[in-house]
Amino acid sequence: MSETPATQPPIKQPPRAVRALKAMKDRRMVAMTLLAFAAGLPMGATLGLLNAWLTEVGITPATIGVLSLVTLGYAFKYLWAPLFQDPRPFPFLERLGARRSWLLVLQIALAALLALFAFSDPTQNMALVAFGAFLITLLSPTHDLLLDAWRIEVARSDVDKDMMSALYQLGYKSAGFVTGFFALLIAEHAGWVIVFLMVAGFMLLSVGGTLLAPEPESSRVRSETRETFYKSLPQKVTLPAIMIIGIGWLIAFGMIMVFVIQAFSPEGASGSAFVRNEGPWIVAFTVVLPALVSAFLIFRKQAHPQTVAIQAGPETKFQALQRILFRSIFDPMMDLIFRLRWGALLVLLLALTYRFTDAVWGSFAYPFYLGENFGALGHSLADVAIASKLFGVIATILGSLMGAVLIGVIGRMPVFFLGGVVAAVTNLLYADLAAGAVAVDSFLAFTRLDAPLIALADWGSTLSASTTEADHGQRMARLMVTIFAENIAGGLALVAITAYLTSVVNPRFAAVQYALLASLTMLIGTLGRPWLGEMIEKHGFYHVFIITFWLGGVAVVLSIIEWVRQARLPEDDEEQASA
């Protein structure tokens, strides 16, 4: 009897930390940090600095809430994501490649638009400011799409993916320091013109990341096949489906544009009436209707995915347009429903509701911190720079690290549930601040944190050009501990929703499908801002924070249902669903 050859012991890999440190020597990692920094600047400028500037010059929360609708570009970026799934290089920049050429053009355009704010006056020409913000929030999500595609395509291993994801957060949060802590201090001493020119200058410097980045090999070699549901359906079915969704989207965009035009007219428009009357229809036309039509095509018309050649056979221009529109509109949604069945409904509802409190609150943070009315706190720009853009950013990073560790220890769904709970509960801390901070003061006294935080606040007051009140230290201690707690919760929730959405995305539709789900996380919050702005002016910040706490409970309930659904899945089905 022959002897069985001894199996060779597996080659021992270096520890993961060692491999990660070696990966840091690659120019892709430096480029990733610079490109992520570029991605964070426009968001910080339009959702942060712009609102602080408008508050400083006396623009009301209701108007700021209306203006925040221009950020719908982040909520609808999935509509044009298919255009950049496999793009051609930008004209005259072919040597850079498809990804890098578009990144370069977008960075230069964004720098020019950010500089436009420096030469604008919202008290005299709000329309120009709104138009500039609108263009930024169209180009910035497009930049994000291309950066996500580049990051995924250029990674060579799991260690690369992990490191680049971590560096993305580092670069993005670094941009938060620039558009927050440093920018607010500069605004306090040098004015807003210098601030926006500085941000535009940083945007131009980030072009270095694009020039340093290598072009992904996958963008040089174009795939010859793709998976689609289009071939399994006759034209007499696909054409009406495309027309139904197209008409629904046109109606939804028409509603939004009419409201924005009316809101900035002398007669004005009611934000709460818009959300109450048109808001549900907008969500129905852009999300619910495509989901229903996709489900109809799968369950009634027996649509199923087929792998086909990208280069289609002989077809007319109309047939080619129909094929492209179907693949862009229906394939990502139909894939979700085909794989997850009724669970796709939970995925869509969680995407819509999980980040509601975070998304809707962003536009009113500065009015609450800086304002004098409706229960606002009346802090200076230097106060907010220290509490929100120094303490807050550090807390967000810590919350993100905590979320990543907890996912590895207790699993994705328990952390997903926990993130929803803490994101909702921290709204009660802000409600307490608006009502006089009785609970927060009690916590500070019990933990003895009041003394060191007051000492830090006294140091921070030396950075401000304004006179400080006698109770400035105590007020700052309240603000710092509240913002720290809220940002810890926000960082944890952000990691949780990112991990959850990534788990349900099909890699074959990664760019478009993730863009769809990530866009939905911003939709309800963005549409709710005009209504919330009016609620603040009618009832004050306290009541609004109580409302957002209860609305956050919707995501908590849905996360429990999804946790139970996934727990009941057979192991093989669960792995296939998250493949």
UniProtKB/TrEMBL annotation:
GO biological-process terms attached to the record: acetyl-CoA transmembrane transport
Gene3D superfamilies given in the database record: MFS general substrate transporter like domains (1.20.1250.20)
Compartment list: Membrane
Matching InterPro entries: AcetylCoA_trans_1-like, AmpG_permease/AT-1, MFS_trans_sf
Any one of the GO CC terms: membrane
Membrane topology, record value: Multi-pass membrane protein
Alphabetic keyword roster: Membrane, Transmembrane, Transmembrane helix, Transport
Protein name as it appears in the record: Major facilitator superfamily (MFS) profile domain-containing protein
